[in-house]
Design goal:
- The structure is a single chain.
- The protein has 327 residues and is an alpha/beta fold.
- It has two domains: 189 residues, 3-Layer(aba) Sandwich (Rossmann fold), CATH 3.40.50.10490; 124 residues, CBS-domain.
- The chain is 46% helix and 16% strand.
- It has 15 helices and twelve strands.
- The strands form three sheets. Strands 2-1-3-4-5 form a five-stranded parallel β-sheet, with helices on both faces. Strands 6-7-8-9 form a four-stranded mixed β-sheet.
- Helix 1 packs across helix 7 and helix 2 crosses helix 7.
- The longest helix has 30 residues.
- The relative contact order is 0.10.
- The model has no long low-confidence stretch (mean pLDDT 92).
């Protein structure tokens, strides 16, 4: 075995040991959860203000992530650095807030002023710590205790397993809260506009169905044949084009209902079509297409996509916008 291969094997062995060690810590954490977790969720759910998440060092980095996860899943939250809190940032913590403090040792000196502030204003304090008898645990209204677990660092010094457990426990709190509140996809979309904004800025040409999918017919097509073509294409409409291929009208389900009568099948599509239908250009934004569908007193579900000469180049349904995250 070459030195390079031996080194590679050693690296893989180390990585697998780290993952196995941290996985064991997570299994122990899951098994240790009890009514203290439920009490912590109830305190967070009942907060009249925000959840103030704090921690120092590596715990502070986890706390920042937890605050962001809570905020993005419907629980107003912010991170306050404990050292900065002692130099004016305590003013960010107000009555009605709940404090969630992370410290594996539970003896982080920088948390002292923040804990005292919470006690002074009667704020509920939740601790995530590895020591039940610590100063932080003694001051807390709910203690989420991390079970004993070996750090993945071979020196036993660098926070590894402990911070993984903190991170996972924070995710468990956030998901339990969103489940309790019934926070759904619609709520998630409202506070994550970035993805939807990107979708709304897509071009119509990227979302439309092309030539082969378009339901088109000349104005002299009999209605019995027209109905077959509409059913075939499944857009609930039929575009009417003149001899030059320009879109001059549309027949929709609504037009069919209005023209219903004993002679309907004997009539020509040109007799019942809606003239000058709403259309959209291929280069238009998806947001513009949605606006065109919803404008006026009668929203529509389908738009023909036409070029500058009025020639149909595609068709766009509101379902296409929904699938793309625009609507």
């Amino acid at each position: 075995m070459t030195a390079a291969v031996a080194s590679l094997d050693a690296d893989l062995d180390t990585a697998r040991d780290v993952l196995a060690t941290e996985a064991a810590g997570l299994r122990a954490l899951a098994a240790s959860l009890d009514e203290a977790f439920t009490r912590a969720v109830a305190l967070l759910a009942g907060a009249a203000g925000r959840v103030v998440v704090t921690g120092m060092g590596k715990s502070g980095h986890v706390a920042r992530k937890l605050a962001a996860t809570l905020a993005s899943t419907g629980t107003p939250a912010l991170f306050v650095h404990p050292a900065e809190a002692s130099h004016g940032d305590l003013g960010m913590i107000v009555p009605g807030d709940v404090v969630l403090a992370l410290s594996n040792s539970g003896e982080t000196a920088e948390l002292a002023d923040l804990i005292e502030h919470a006690r002074r204003f009667g704020l509920k304090l939740i601790a995530i710590t590895g020591r039940a008898g610590s100063t932080l645990a003694a001051a807390a209204d709910a203690v989420l205790l991390l079970p004993p677990a070996r750090e993945a660092c071979p020196l036993g010094l660098a926070p590894t397993t402990s911070t993984t457990m903190q991170l996972a426990l924070g995710d468990a709190l956030a998901v339990a809260l969103l489940t309790r509140r019934g926070f759904g996809r619609a709520d998630f979309r409202r506070i994550h506009p970035g993805g939807r904004l990107g979708a709304r800025l897509r071009r119509v040409r990227d979302l439309m169905h092309g030539d082969d999918a378009m339901p088109l017919a000349p104005p002299d097509l009999p209605m019995d044949a027209a109905l077959l073509r509409m059913t075939e294409r499944r857009f609930g409409c039929l575009g009417i084009v003149d001899a030059a291929g320009r879109l001059i009208g549309i027949v929709t389900d609504g037009d069919l209902r209005r023209a219903m009568g004993p002679d309907l099948l004997a009539r020509r599509v040109g007799e019942i079509m809606t003239h000058a239908p709403r259309t959209i250009a291929p280069e238009a934004l998806a947001a513009d297409a949605l606006r065109a569908m919803n404008q006026g007193a009668h929203p529509i579900t389908t738009l023909f996509v036409v070029d500058a000469g009025g020639i149909p180049r595609g068709i766009l349904h509101v379902h296409d916008l929904l699938r793309a995250g625009v609507a």
